[in-house]
Design goal:
This protein is an alpha+beta fold. About 30% of the residues lie in helices and about 35% in strands. It has one domain (about 5-85, about 100-170): Electron Transport, Fmn-binding Protein, Chain A (Pnp Oxidase, Chain A, Roll).
């Protein structure tokens, strides 16, 4: 993806917090010699900035692609909000000449995938995921599901590169970002609250 200098420079803490808060993304496996890659929407758990774990159904088409090439991309995007043209104009600027855009956060984790078929290791991955998605729910331990575990395979992704982009007005000054933040607060649409949080971190009050 295109990452302008003003949308980059993120700390690990920032992109890690975003990826963990999303918890859902698209796992992309290019394989070898394919017309298009295999793209799988999936829940996942970011164990650390260097490791992701997840599980998928055994019939998933991604396994053949991983046999061909274990390199994958986990793409996570969210916290987006459309910014109308007129919002980009302040003071005596002509609102008709504002440039519309979309604020969003996107992180792409480039990783090497290791398939997990051992029953105990698959159960361990499921415990990690349940600990995030259903903490304290009282759900049965994954190992108790017995043969059901045969229907899934686990994945451990060793992250070797991170591409992160937080597009929240980094190319304009504080006054323009403040004006947009105020309009987002007034609109209060889907995604606006999350966008405001990212915007405020980049704009002194």
């Amino acid at each position: 993806m295109l990452i302008h200098p003003w949308d980059a420079g993120l700390s690990a803490d920032e992109w890690v917090a975003f990826v963990r808060a999303q918890g859902f993304g698209h796992l992309i496996a290019a394989g070898r010699g394919r017309d298009v890659p295999v793209v799988v929407p999936t829940q996942f758990a970011l164990v650390s900035p260097h490791e992701v774990v997840l599980h998928l159904a055994r019939p998933n088409p991604i396994w053949a692609a991983l046999d061909e090439n274990p390199a994958v991309v986990l793409s996570v995007a969210g916290d987006w909000a459309y910014i109308p043209a007129a919002w980009k104009a302040i003071n005596d600027e002509d609102p008709r000449m504002g440039v519309p855009t979309t604020y969003y956060a996107a992180v792409q984790l480039i990783a090497d995938a290791a398939v997990v078929d051992d029953q105990d290791e698959k159960a361990a991955i499921l415990r990690i995921q349940l600990g995030i998605t259903e903490p304290g729910s009282g759900a049965a331990d994954p190992a108790e599901h017995g043969r059901v575990l045969n229907g899934i395979r686990g994945l451990r992704l060793a992250v070797r590169e991170v591409r992160a982009k937080f597009k929240y007005g980094g190319n304009v000054d504080d006054a323009h970002r403040t004006a947009v933040a105020e309009k987002l607060e007034h609109r209060d649409g889907p995604g606006d609250a999350a966008a405001i949080e990212h915007l405020r971190r980049r704009t002194p009050r």
